[in-house]
Amino acid sequence: MNNKGQLTIFIIIGILILLVIVVAIYFYKPAAEAPLVFVEKEVQPIYDIVEACVKEISKEGLAKLGLQGGYIQIPPAIKRNPLSFLSISPDDFVVNPLWYYEGENRAPSLEFMQRELENYLKELVIDCVDGFSAAPEGYKVEIKDEFKSKVVFGEKDTTINVNWPLEIKFQELKKRQDEYRIKLPVRVKPVYELAKKVMDAENKELLFEKLTMNLLVQNPEIPFDGLEFSCGKKQWNLHSIQKSIQELLSFTLPIIRVHNTNYLPFLHQEDIDVYYSLHDARVKMLELLEKGKSSQDYTFEELPKPSYTPPDAFDFHQLTLEVGASKTNLQAGFYYLPEWGLRVSAQPNDGGMLKSSVFKGIKWIRFFCINQWHFAYDVIYPVMVLLRDPEAFDGEGYTFQFSLPVLINDNQGERVYYGLKQFKTVEYDTEFCNKPGNQALDIRVKGFEEGLAFAVDLEGVNVTLECGPQICPMGITSAEEGVYRLETVVPEGCANPFIRADKENYVSDQTIALSADKQVEIVLTKLRELDMSVVKYDYSKYTNQLSEEAKPLLPQEKAYVYITISKGLGYDQVLEYPAQHKTAKFAEDTLEYDVNIVLTDVFGNVLGGYAAEKLKIPYEDIEGRTGVVLKVLQYAPIAKTAEDQANMMGLIYSPEMQEKLKPEFT
To answer: pLDDT averaged over the chain?
Structure first.
């Protein structure tokens, strides 16, 4: 009897457990899944048309969201102010708003982006279906109510739930279809959340401001603090410093990595402790040095010194950002283009010139001099942040980009309410420039125009006078008595000044105006703008052969082109192909050029390039031509080891490749 009772209890417990499991299964619904849409066989052709249009328009809308930092329609307050966005197409047709501007957070919310895509669908889907003209013969469709959609950016994909009541007639049948559900394989939400982490970390930690200052301090061309035992005054041109900063940022920003994202591995990625050991050695060394201020209980030999320093240790410690991202296969990259502008000022400065202070000795040490300088910089420039889901759209990938400003005030990063409104601009010494002297000048600037064999006077040339550290804008050449000239007076106390001439599409130049001169003539070299293309030639490390067939760049590849003309005051071009630039300028003269091209993918991985110094290009090669083909070497496979990278750079700089891959004019 007891055994039967115990068996009954076990049976009851088993039934209860089974009941709990059944109830749990019944009520469980995955949170991310929307309900399935039932489609009858007769309705399927019309459903397919709606689905195809929603997919097409959604993909277009997502591309716009990605290009324009989460906006499809740019708000008027942003569109009206060219300082608040980056233009990434001609005539500002496509722009990328700064997510932070003058103390204001302008990053759109995820909900806002969903509404943007919903509005975009509502605007364009009806035109896309085109009255269902693509429906099979015999079908008639009547729209019963307006198109509505609900976009959900999920963790793994994007879901679009559509409500669009349609009455569908086919032969004797009449059906109605209201609901449509489309899923797109693109992870907009995780990409956006990573973007927000980057922006939030920048606002809180001033990541790019600190990185920029580290780069500037380590650049020998940019003066900060210095002391030198010499008597000659040192001086630097702020314009040249600006160009140096722009080139530095153009090269360096694409190398930056974001911790925990999918980036090009470090040389010792599998043994990452090699990098951290350098940091530990530095901390220990500082501790011992600090201790040594009051004690002599250690020797230099006892200081911890790393046995090995990886070649990319600087990249690991200085060019890897921590933004609080969880481990992800999303990719992150950064870049800056000089045409976006960079504002730089330094204090103290004198008419755009930075000068050291010279202190001379007295009496028996009067020939002893100390040169000393200290400059505080204000710098403002934009950075484009590029994030990518490489798995989106079945491997096609999805890119989202936004821009942020880097703001430096007196050598320190600044965020709140510091920006263009507070920027201290460089001003000319108007008191010096406006005090006329006794030397009058008639300045003529000549150049060669199309179809003429002789130089003619040029109109609209900007003329600047440089007298020691002083810089004075003198005016622009204009028509007078049948010629283009500028008549002006040299400032008082200025002897033998430099007269500089600048005109668009000409190489700038200068000459000295001696005290006895009444007329000054400068001849400028004209620049010819040519359609530019970049092609690549594969070089296999296994066969040590360069392919004979030129290939176009892939969509994920970019070429950064640096062309320098040394004649006159020089002319530099920093170009990006194909995203931003499709033309390059060459002089209408036989001149020497420095040409450097770096081939990368969109995340800054160096794939190859071309390098030539003092490359002589005869005018005959350029005369009458309309295009130029720039050629680069692509090292295959990708140079990942230090040895392969060294081999690749050796090839790029070799005289053989300089000759084989020299520019071709068409």
So the answer is: 84
* Phi-psi domain of 643 (left: phi exceeds 0; alpha: psi -120 through 50; beta: other): alpha
| Sign of the Cα pseudo-torsion (319, 324, 326, 331, in order) | negative
Sign of the alpha-carbon dihedral angle for 505, 507, 512, 516: negative
548 burial level (CB within 10 Å; 0-12, 13-18, 19+):
exposed
User: Nearest Cα to 560, choosing from 532, 593, 610, 598?
Assistant: 598
Q: Describe the crossing of helices 207-217 and 188-205 by its angle, rounded to 10 degrees.
A: 60
Degrees to nearest 5, angle at CA 645 with 642 and 647: 110
DSSP 8-state class, residue 306: -
Q: CB burial class (10 A; 0-12, 13-18, 19+) of residue 471?
A: buried
Q: How far apart are CA 350 and CA 130, in angstroms?
A: 66
Distance CA 637, CA 540 (A): 7
* Residue 657: per-residue pLDDT: 93
Which segments of 163-221 does DSSP mark as H helices, in order? 188-205, 207-217
Q: Is 93 helix (H, G, I), strand (E, B) or coil?
A: coil
Q: Is the pLDDT of residue 369 over 70?
A: no
pLDDT higher at 369 or 654: 654
What DSSP line would sit under 458-507, residue for residue? -SS-EEEEEETTEEEEEEE-EEETTEEEEEEEEETT--S-EEEEE-TTEE
Secondary structure of residue 442 in the 3-state scheme: strand
Q: What is the pLDDT of residues 481-495, one digit of tens each?
A: 778 999 999 998 888
How many angstroms separate the CA atoms of 167 and 93, rounded? 39
Reduced to 3 states (helix: H, G, I; strand: E, B; else coil), residue 180 is strand
Q: Is the pLDDT of residue 621 over 60?
A: yes
CA torsion 196-187-211-375 (nearest 10°) is -60
Q: How confident is the model at residue 295 (pLDDT cuts 50, 70, 90)?
A: very low
* Helices 188-205, 110-129: inter-axial angle, 10-degree rounding: 140
* Mean pLDDT calculated for residue range 167-184: 92
pTM: 0.59
Nearest to 379 by CA among 417, 350, 419, 349: 419
SS3 string, 498-519, reads EEEEECCCEECEEEECCCCCCE
Average the pLDDT over 236-261 and give the result.
Answer: 92
Six-digit token string for 662: 């020299």
CA distance 365 to 361: 5
* Token reading at 626: 């309309």
